[in-house]
Amino acid sequence: MKKLYTYLCIIIISLAVNLSFSDLIPSSEKSVEKYGFSVDNALDHLKIISKKPHYIGSEYHSVVKDYILNELNNMGLETEIQNQVVTRFCCVGTNTSNIIGTIKGSGNGKSLVLLTHYDSRHHASFGASDAGSGVVTILEGIRAFLSKNTVPINDIHLVFTDAEEIGLLGAQAFVKNHSLVDNIGLVLNFEARGSGGPSYMLMETNGKNGALISEFINAEPDFPAANSLMYSVYKMLPNDTDLTVFREKADINGFNFAFIGDHFDYHTSLDSYERLDRNTLIHQADYIMSMLNHFSMINLSKLDSYNDYVYLNFPFLKMLHYPYSWIFPLLIFSIILYLFIIYFGIGVNKLSIRGVLNGLYPLIISLFVCLSLTIILWNLIVYLNPDYNDILHGFTYNGYYYIAAFIFLNLFCLFSIYYPFFKNSSGLDLTIIPIGFWLIINVLISIYLKGAAYFIIPVNLVLFSILLIYFSNFKENNKMLVWTFFSVPLIYIFAPQLKMFPVGLGLDNLFITSFFLILIFVLLIPIFSNFAFKNQIKNLTLLTAIVFFALAFLNNDYDVNNKKPNSILYYSDLDSKQSYWLSRNENLDKFTSQFFGKNESVQEASFFSSFSKYGTPHKQSALADFIEFTSSEIQILSDTIVENKRNLKLKITPKRKINKIDLTTDDAFVLNSMSVQGVEFEIEKSEFKINPGQFLTYYLSFEDKDVIIELDFEENLSPSLNFIETSFDLFESEKFNFKPREDYMMPMPFVNTDAIVLSKKIKL
Fold first, then answer.
1. Where in 691-730 does DSSP place strands (E)?
2. What pLDDT score was predicted for residue 615?
3. What are the backbone dihedrals phi and psi of residue 94, each rounded to the nearest 5 degrees, phi first?
4. DSSP secondary structure letters along 288-310
5. How far apart are the C-alpha atoms of 708 and 640, rounded to whole Å?
6. What's phi and psi for 458, nearest 5 deg?
């Protein structure tokens, strides 16, 4: 019988794990067919939009813009293109072209905005997921909505922003300059940070989230994927979606719907039509249709709240939520119940003092061994695979195998650590100290991270299961089954987070998975301690870990579906007539080695730096042949002094196709004001100290024939200014002769690469 109950418990735990993942994302189109949403229609749009990279200034950027505009016109919407030069401190600018479509509602209340961006990341990404998926979700969602002949109460504005990828500039242009902003009540933003997986809901609000959460639940999405821990962490991070601009600049509430799975595709040439997970697109469709049907009909002026809610996915209920005001009462109740269980359990011989104290040792050992092993082993893996350092976002193509391998390796360690204690102490004894550890975590959460306060829920379920065991005559096998039943919510809530953190934050954060796994395991000790074949299960976890490590090893090579990122840049100082090849790759490969000698030392090219999202410097540099390029003409239109202020006005006229210009300085100086194309940067103080390095970037669109820059500083200053122009055409230039990339390689994301960069001083 014990074997039978063991099998039954394993089945229940496995089903809970499976349910926790399957409830997060749809597996077929049936969930959106009821709305009339056609996935095929959406994919037809996506095939066109993601045919080529369409970053601002590229030829296909205009094609995508015209395509979206035509689709909106074909649906009968009021449309406009908002052309606007926009600057954002500090310090980037461009000439944006936002696409806006409007559906008039029957009422006169606040309007609803459906938001996404249509530009792709320069210069190699096809932008299928980020954010072509958002574009097609909105286009097809609106078509399906209008096909029902539904008349919304609220005006609906479709806003496809430009230049999101270079600093949220399209959103900045819209929020700062468009009259529609004054009447917006809510924004629904569709984004991506990968090419698959569940789409998570993350809010943006300057106030409390209570009303937003209540209405989100009332909208009845079939697959809500959200919890308040993600919301709390998200609020602490330097958020960078278009929706952030709406919140910060206009105090407008909104929801982000974004997916992070297959993070290795993010901003790369692999962000393609073929690789977008169709179930992820369906998930976005479920969100837009449920949200659109709900928020187009309610009063959007009542979404501010005086209450914050704890919320989470919960088995069979979809979403569970309660106000922050419950956090401390629940915590106090749990502590009192915990102390009562210890006192009463010892009094009726259900617990032994020695057995309870024995629970401290394996907990401490588990935390030390599992966390240390995970950190050390991952660093060893990276050391043995130095190419991983060139995957800047930190999630490798075989990353899912590594996650599974470390989970089972940690399980093996946990079983190995606890197995000797099972012989001398009951599972109930051994879990009392870990419950206390959970309560300590919850005390810290209640003070510092209230969004994670749902951690108290599994603690209470475990405490209730102990009470049930105390006051019943269950046999040992039945006790194991009762504990398993009460542990289902614990597994359901936390199992997806074992995967979510290393996917979203990188495999360097596998220790977070280890920590969460320990938290889950120690509450399941009474189950594991009564398993019929503990040794076999322990050995099976080790074997499974080995299998997944082997799969990670076997899938470690690059191929046409999992491409190796590398970077190359041609940098030329026109004043000294000195040129260099630069790369951000730490390790040379067949492509990059043709530019750098075999004995070339790895060094940072301190004479030139350019943007890298992860702060990665140029790690390889080598002298290159100096090649003459026609650089931009720089004219000083005026250089005047008024009231002890020096005003310098420059006109830059490109003489070839360039994509962006930068101004840098060798000197620190104080800037009073700065403008580009007549649009002034909003310097937050009366003056701004410029440190040596890059201080202005302007991306050129097809509208820019020349660029006017105006600087204002103290009259006695004469800063050393450098002008840098960049064109993303290294591989198209006929002036170079090098071997192209192999088919298993791709341009490195998040950095400037495959570019010709020319630099010269501006003579003042």
1. 693-699, 707-714, 721-727
2. 73
3. -170, 180
4. HHHHHHHHTTS-GGG---S--EE
5. 16
6. -60, -30
Spell 598-616 as b/e; 16+ CB within 10 A means b.
eeeeeeebeebbbebeeeb
What is the residue whose two structure tokens read 């106090």?
332
Query: What are the structure tokens assigned to 425, written together?
Result: 């102490």
Tokens 């405490």: give the residue: 463
pLDDT band at 238 (very low <50, low <70, confident <90, very high): low
Who contacts 600 (Cβ-Cβ below 8 Å, separation ≥6)? 620, 621, 622
Burial class (CB in 10 A: 0-12, 13-18, 19+), 697: buried
Kindly state the helix (H) or strand (E) to which residue 102 belongs, with its residue range: strand 92-103
> What confidence tens digit (pLDDT) does each residue in 560-584 have?
999 999 999 999 999 999 999 999 9
* pTM given for the model: 0.94
| Other CB atoms within 10 Å distance of the CB of residue 368 | 11
Residues 252, 187 contacting (CB under 8 angstroms):
yes
Q: Rounded to whole angstroms, how far apart are CA atoms 467 and 497?
A: 29
Please report the pLDDT score of residue 479 as a whole number: 85
Close Cβ partners of 748 (under 8 Å, ≥ 6 residues apart): 390, 392, 565, 566, 567, 584, 585
Using DSSP bridges, classify how beta strands 111-117 and 633-642 pair: parallel, antiparallel or unpaired.
unpaired
Which residue, chain included where needed, has tokens 């496995």?
14
Q: Tell me the domains of the chain and their CATH numbers.
A: 2-20+324-554 (no CATH), 24-314 (3.40.630.10), 564-764 (no CATH)
Q: How far is CA 43 from CA 63, 190, 285, 431, 613, in A?
A: 17, 16, 12, 51, 30
Beta strands in 356-459 (DSSP E): none
Closest CA to 290 of 168, 472, 160, 137: 137
Residue 21 carries which side chain, given as an amino acid letter? F
Find out whether 210 and 305 touch, Cβ atoms under 8 Å.
yes
CB 125, CB 269: distance < 8 Å: yes
Nearest to 462 by CA among 546, 522, 398: 522
- pLDDT for position 668: 84
Measured at the alpha carbon of residue 408, what is the angle toward residues 405 and 409, in degrees to the nearest 5?
A: 80
Kindly report the CA angle at 365 between 360 and 370, in degrees rounded to 5? 135
Place of tokens 């475990």: 462
CB atoms within 10 A of CB 437: 18
Q: What are phi and psi of 755, to 5 degrees?
A: -130, 155
CB 366 within 8 A of CB 522: yes
How many CB atoms are closer than 10 A to CB 761?
A: 16
Identify whether 61 is preceded by a cis peptide bond (ω within 30 of 0): no
* Mean confidence (pLDDT) of the chain: 93
Q: Which residues pair with 675 in a beta bridge?
A: 680, 710
